[in-house]
Amino acid sequence: MKTIVTGVCILAAIFLAIGVTGAADLEAGFLGIQWASPAAHQEGLTRLYERKNVVYYIQPNIVHTINETPVPNVVYGFYEHQFFAVYIKLESEEVFGKFRNYLKSQYGIPDKSFSMKTGETVYKWKQGEIKIKLKTNEENYRMKLGFYYLPLSKKVNEEQMEISHSRSLQFFPIEKDEKPELIPLLRF
Question: CATH number of the domain at 2-159, please?
Answer without folding.
Answer: 3.40.1000
